[in-house]
Amino acid sequence: MDQTLLLGVGALLTLALVTGIVTLVKTGQARRLKERVSVAGALESQAALQSGLPSIRLQTNETQPLVQRFLRLLRFNPDLPQEQVIPWWLTILLGVIAGALGGYYIGFLIGRSMSVPLGIVLGFFAIRGLFGWQHQRYVESMFVQIPDAIGMMVRAIRAGLPVGEAMRSVAAEMTAPLREEFARMLGDVAVGRPVDQALMRLYKRTELPEFSFLAVTLGLQSQTGGNLAETLENLADIVRKRVALAKRAKALAAEARMQAGILMVLPYIAALAMSQIQDFYIENFFYNPTGQKLLMVGLGFSVFGYLVIRWMIKRAGSD
Q1: Region for 63 from its dihedrals, namely left if φ exceeds 0, alpha if ψ lies in -120 to 50, beta otherwise
Q2: Cα 55 from Cα 187, distance rounded (Å)
Q3: Each residue of 207-241: pLDDT tens digit?
Q4: pLDDT tens sequence across 18-35
Q5: Which residues of the chain have a pLDDT value below 50?
Q6: Which of 26, 79, 96, 218 has the highest local Cβ count within 10 Å?
Q7: How far apart are alpha carbons 69 and 130 in whole angstroms?
Q8: How far are the Cα atoms of 83, 90, 128, 171 from residue 135, in angstroms, in the given order?
Q9: Are 189 and 164 in contact (CB under 8 A)?
Q10: Cβ within 8 Å of residue 37, ≥6 positions away
């Protein structure tokens, strides 16, 4: 009973810690923005008095690096709230529940002394997995839209429109989620940030290298000149081939993922069939303490093997 209470207290502390950190970031963004604006306004006013010239340049000092690193480790990006299909508080709650249940049942195998730290580790990876799944889903849906967006920019530039208007056409006519990201990038450009730097900020938010390609292309073209429409058309062709290659790799990996799922489910199908033939073989896994431990070991190895296979498939596809 004491160990169960200790496990519950550990789960609640973990929930409080993660929720507090995420809430601090979510609720502190507006406050930090006001502070930066006020500080920058005071500094610019002082500089204007000394030089006699007005300025609208703002300082953007980064704050709370440890919190940002922890959120990055969780795969939670506060700059992309639209990627969260599941609310962040529900994601944390599900992770804590998974950690508490996992730690409670692991205590049967290795003792209650290790159930709390292992439950915290399981909860952490569950939260990270949910946040990572939502981020990957958001990024993949954006990735397939990039060739069409660059093609739209090429057509607009060939029609005689400047780069800024071509990007506005993308923000107005493309579908979500690329439309919102381009609109946010154009907001950065509207306050005085160069186009290439605004695209690099978009690359840092989404971690899609195609945005860095576009940023480098526009930056070099602004410095060296040349036919921008032709350069963007070549870039669109390269990105389109990358998208097609990624889809082909995903299709080829579907067979391996299916095999991994079959390998995970097959022992339990065999156990179900055995329970229909000889009941007492399976009853020992549910009513005998030793059988319960063996059942948990088997379940743990099955999940671990499935995750390792998926990790190997993902690494092979990324290479």
Answers
A1: beta
A2: 19
A3: 899 999 999 999 888 888 778 889 999 999 999 99
A4: 665 655 555 555 455 555
A5: 1, 30, 37-45, 47-63
A6: 96
A7: 18
A8: 6, 16, 10, 21
A9: yes
A10: 58
Burial class (CB in 10 A: 0-12, 13-18, 19+), 170: buried
Would you state the structure tokens that stand for residue 6, as one six-digit string?
A: 């200790």
Report phi then psi at 177, rounded to 5. -95, -5
Nearest CA to 6 out of 74, 81, 104 is that of 104
User: 82-113 burial, b if ≥16 CB within 10 A, otherwise e?
Assistant: ebbeeebeebbbebbebbbebbbbbbeeeebe
59, two tokens: 């300082």
Identify whether the C-beta of residue 108 lies closer than 8 Å to the C-beta of residue 147.
no
Whole-number Å distance between alpha carbons of 222 and 162: 12
- Separation of alpha carbons 175 and 21, rounded Å: 33
> Which pLDDT score is estimated for 64?
57
Is there a contact between 266 and 194 (Cβ–Cβ < 8 Å)? no
